[in-house]
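Chapter review: from sequence to fold.
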Amino acid sequence: MTQQIIQAEQPLAVADNPATVGAFFQLMKPRVMSLVIFTGFAGMFLAPGQMHPVLAAIALFAIAAGAGASGAINQWYDRDIDAIMTRTRGRPIPAGQVVPAEALSLGIVISILSVLLLSLSSNLLAAGLLAFTIFFYAVIYTVWLKRSTAQNIVIGGAAGALPPMVGWAAVTGSISIESIALFALIFIWTPPHFWALALVKNDDYKQANIPMLPVVAGPKETRKQILIYALILAPTGLVPYALSMASLFYLVVAAVMGGIFVWLSYSLFKKPSDQAAWKLFKFSIFYLFILFAALIADRLMASLVFGAGGLTG
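The token string follows.
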């Protein structure tokens, strides 16, 4: 705790010139936003019901903006540790491109506007879920969990898992077992995905005094937990088929991808190395993309053959 206070008091670079549009955009974590857009769209596309394409586009924009806003608040609060870690010291605030107060203002204003926009373009349930997502990531995870427990990613992963539920609710105005299945897929995926990265960046987290699992429990326990989660994730990926959300095509894709995820996790457990951890981390991104892409493709094929599904019905 004392180290965190000292870090917070360390001077950070101050922007000498007005921040550029690009710097503000980087505050919103565009790579994370791209995943939110994709999974949020998947939730909207897979949901039963109809939604005007223009309203759907506005709703998806609001979901992406909300994710970006929470990212800006996250970078405002984490500016002390971002300046320490090699992976994050190039972010706009520690790099002196954006003044912290500007980042906080951006995050708060866009958070409010995104929730209002989603409520107007879809419904109050979707807007409420988006508001909860922003609050959970910016406050529960960033302020509390990240610096206090090794389970930060496990619990905090809920924020990243909510976008498909928000998208589903935007179309249907409800929460269903199907949208919960999409949530569960990302929620179970998140710990092994981030822990693989944490194994490679362990020294960074130690220096910043962040209690990631490799720092607290050690690399061996982390590799074991990754394997356990991989064994849970593989069957979780099959749930959409069990719920009749997808056909045999998706089942085959999910089974193969889940098997590879388990195999890479087992390989990391038996023969640990940064290379194996990095390989698993990169594949985990590909895994999630392929599963959601397969769900979308499966529904698209069904709509072409049977004339059903997909936002506009």
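Two observations follow directly from the output. The domain at 6-306 is CATH 1.10.600 (Farnesyl Diphosphate Synthase). The chain has 16 helices and no strands.
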